[in-house]
Amino acid sequence: MASADEGSPAEPGPLPSGGGRGPVRTADEAAAVVAGDGTITGWTRGAEALLGYPAAEAVGRSAARLLAGPPDPRRTAAVAAHCRAGAGWSGLLPLRARDGRSLDVDVRVTSSFTIDGREAFLVSGREPTPHWTMSGSVLDDFLNRSPVGMAVLDPDLRYLWLNDSLERFGGVPRDQRLGRRPGEVLPDALAAPLERLMRQVLSTGRAVADYEYVGWSWSDPHRRRAYTTSFFPLTDARDRRIGIGYMVLDVTDRWNARRLLALVNEAGASIGSTLDVRRTAQELADFAVPRFADFVFVDLLETPFGGERHGTAGGERPTMRRAGMCSVREGCPEAVVRIGEPVDFVPPPHDAHFLLHGDPVLLPVLDPDSHGWTVEHPERAARLREFGLHSLISVPMRARDTVLGLTTFMRSRNPVPFDEDDVAPARELVARAAVCVDNARRYTREHTAALVLQQSLLPHTLRGGTALDVASSYLPADAKDGVGGDWFDVIPLSGGRVGLVIGDVVGHGIGAAATMGRLRTAVQTLADMDLPPDELLARLDDLVLRLSEEEPVDRTGTTVVGATCLYAVYDPANGRCAMARAGHPPPVVVTPDGVAGFPDLPAGPPLGLGGLPFESLEIALPEGSLLGLYTDGLVEGSDKDVENGMARLARAVSRDGMPLEELCPAVVKELLPVPQPDDIALLLARTHVLTPDRLVSWDVAVDPAAVGEVRAKAARQLEAWGLAELSMTTELIVSELVTNAIRYASGPVRLRLLYQSALTCEVSDASNTSPRLRHARTTDEGGRGLFLVAQLAHRWGTRYTDRGKIIWAEQPLP
Fold it and tell me: Which of 252, 303, 574, 681 is positioned for an S-S bond with 486, CB 3.0–4.6 A?
């Protein structure tokens, strides 16, 4: 092996981390294989090009003859021992070329390996670039000019050396650091974690990278800076830890960007929790104090403007009102204007153009004697002096090309003045809040239109089918309040039956309308379950109780949710109507001969009381009977005499020969000739009975052999009705439903076909067991009956009677 070029004769010289400076590249470098005894055993063309020796003259000879000077056995042995230990070596060696020239060659030696049982080393080299060595002056210049702060400490954590960048970062002169620990020259809050990490590195030997902390600028003690530090152990040739080194990098820009992102994200969760303009403005002020400023106020325009409509003339100052403010001092004593009062404060240039097109205004130093504030606003200037308000940022609030107002941030107790870095977070906070304020403003502006949309909660089309002719009238108490809590509905049920419902929710406006929408939807859902009227009201009562638990408590300690309701089910097959009411006025019934009256229907408790039962009543309604459902506003009248109002209603609906579409508004006009203090709703229905030629039924023997017979009867009946197109599907439905009743239920079993606006097939039995639709596996021999029914029918379901249950399936007419 050749000797090293510089350094102690007993030490191998500096070794690169990881055993070399990088992978050996033989394509552009001279390379040779040298045996353990120093004999060259391999020679490349690159080596021949560099030194001029052909392979024949180099291989088999000692590598020592390539040195430009006498070999140093001790240095050679030290390098060989280092490479045998698994590390590499690199350095600058003077070599002699074949023509006698002396060349400085950058040489690298790999760790030892064996070839054919012989120890060998791979040696590569090339001319160094640039052609100078790392002198002490160059190294010193490099370390001190580096933007990275560097330091070396002994095992007792005393400073041995530091560069100029670290001295500038810490703000402590070099002569005060050398020989002392960080805890002796730096604040304890900063030095304690640094020393803890250094001791950890010394004890474990593992480096710690990217420890980030926040300190203070040396040039500006009030301005915070962020740094990231890495610590690593220093070892000698015997791998003993002789000290610790660390490097510090200023990452303030990255820290500020991350802080801005976190601030904006946190603001998104805190600002805009409601659709109230003033609440949103206050949330902005509350969020910014003390995170960003010591005093914040939000002023909103009385009339937002934007686009081509400036809303003010020339340079006239816009009219604003204080919408929100917050201070680190209780009660905001700095404020000249309180919340809700008009505001004339706009920072320079003091006009609407600043709000419409201007950028945020930054005043790092707030002088109360500048900008004419002392003359124009002496009280404001006095507050600036009294509370030490020394820095200001004002940001116009704009959203969707609309100017909304102005937000101003000020500092007093915080000694750090605002600078350009603070403008971006202020702008982002205001932009986030501006969107929320604009949303709230739009909601408030469109609230009146929303009341009109609440009319959609009432049915626009009433479908009584062939069983009922229906008509309705709805009139709110006051047009500006929009829809209230009165509602009605007509619900088609199975078997040609029709459900009629009318209700009255306490109150008016959005709350009553929302509750009304919930109850109407709930009634439709419960009606689809074919519940009898009393049970449906009991379920509805449970829902109102749950809604009451969600509502706020009024001054009397009770909830504001409450409602009355009447539900009736008319069956055209037998001309009977079952009904129940929950604190609602009873229906009015007019027989075909013109006699009007009110059924003796148990009143029942209003919805929301809970724990009290509801009772049903069933009455017969001959063909052509009139059934009227109404809310109490129709019968209370100006005298508040409900009995007189009900008598007037009975006379009004007894008019003969008037179509329902004309009778309904005429009754309302007669009973309420002047504006009324309550909402009213009136629902009129005229009954029709299903004729015998549209209804057939057969008793079915509890015998599987009866299925074919009853299926044939159904097919013949469809032929008679002219519905031959439905014969195949009807036979399948009849077969499956009758078979299930015979197999799984108990007799008597009965089949009924109804021909109305749809064809309905009903199979009744004496069992209360509910059928279950399931999906049979491919290997199952049965279990597909209800699945086939569900696929063939438009609708199907089950309803229970006092004698068992009925399974029905409905098909639309061709």
Answer: 681
